[in-house]
Amino acid sequence: MNKEELKSAALQYHSTPVPGKIAVQTTKPCLTADELSLAYTPGVAAPCLEIKENVENVWKYTARSNTVAVVSDGTAVLGLGNIGPEAGMPVMEGKAVLFKRFAGIDAMALCIGKVFNEKGRTDAAKVIETVERLEPSFGGINLEDIGAPACFEVEQTLKKRMNIPVFHDDQHGTAIISLAAILNALKLVKKDISKCRFVVNGAGAAGISCSELYITAGADRKNFIMLDSKGVISTKRTDLTAEKARFAVDTNKTTLAEALVGADVFLGLSVGGCVTQEMVKSMAPGAIIFAMANPIPEIDPALARSAGAAVVGTGRSDFPNQINNVLGFPGIFRGALDVRATDINEEMQLAASRAIAEVACEPVPEELKEYLKSAYPADYAAGVFEPEMPLSTDYVIPKPFDARVVPRVARYVAETAIKTGVAQIQITDLDAYEKEVAARVVAANQ
């Protein structure tokens, strides 16, 4: 499908037979006068009064426990930039589709306006005030496509003020998925994360959050060189935000080419085509490259491999090792909602990474293999799903349609929420819970 064909197909997909991709569906029948009296007046007064008596009953008598708000102001839409809340709606509706398809979670797309400063950028205080007032209606908040640096203040403040999970997927989703891929890639090249040198090109929300999570997972902050549009973030610069300043290094290096010499891991969250084969050749043996600029990666995977990279991943589905956030957020929120967590903390994020990495190292069950055959025919034909230990340079992370991912992530996240004291519901049989999540996801898609 060429570019024009894709555009035409996408516009038709979004406009017919009805506009958009989501709708509200009832969970109870309302076909008779008696059912109407239960759904609305006079019967609805009973649960209202029960909740008034004890506000915790809202979780028992409403859909709140399975509902997430996908909130955006449209100022940093992936690949499109500051396009505004109206233009961001198709993306947020798409996110709601993925919540439902992969985790059975009901998500509402909420694109908010009039939250901008005089330059058309995000006014953090206005977003915070708006989102904070949504708490009684939702079990969790998924922030999406909110520009940096405001996104950091928005998330950090809301996490403190709200008693439900708040998660900025552009920051933490990318970090969780890419960390899972890096952990498995390091197994293949036999390197210790604590000794690896990282070069991160792109100092926005994703680049900074990825680096912070890698450090929590064992990487050494001193081994990071981060670059923004002005070059290496060094101690010589005086134009740094607080988030960037944490990665300022004392170095004479100023360019990406200089930074990559001897590096073990390259993380690209920047612009297409900025990495050359010569740069890859200058990296350490067994180099790992995750070039996630879309739609054009920082370097074409074939070029990176021919220049000596051991493992290469991108953000695209037509190349091996796609860093796709759908591997993370559905299962993360599924686990958080099921234990009614008050937060998605760093320990839960690390647990999600471990779960995703673990699935890629396990044999693919025969019944799942048949589905993956139709979902990923080229990978199936190449034998990706055949070995007892599928982990390889072209498969360091599971595929999005691997049905094991969401239940495993939900299990690890729920378990960690309980262990870290942010869960309000206890789950004692985690094996049974993982199987139950798998069954619920199947039921949600029937």
Fold and architecture overview:
With 446 residues, the protein is α/β, with parallel strands linked by helices. It contains 19 helices and ten strands. The strands form two sheets. It has a six-stranded mixed sheet. Strands 2-1-3-4 form a four-stranded parallel sheet, with helices on both faces. Strand 8, helix 12 and strand 9 (288-291) form a beta-alpha-beta unit. The mean pLDDT is 96.
Protein structure class: alpha/beta
Give the percentage of residues in beta strands: 5-15%
Fraction of residues in helix: 40-55%
- The number of helical segments is 19
Strand order of the largest sheet: 7-6-5-8-9-10
SS elements, strand count: 10
Q: What integer is the average pLDDT?
A: 96
| End-to-end separation | 29 Å
Largest sheet, strands/sense/barrel:
6 strands, mixed
- Encode the helix/strand succession as letters: HHHHEHEHEHEHEHEEHHEHEHEHHHHHH
- Rg (C-alpha, Å): 23 Å
Overall 3D form: globular
Low-confidence stretches: none
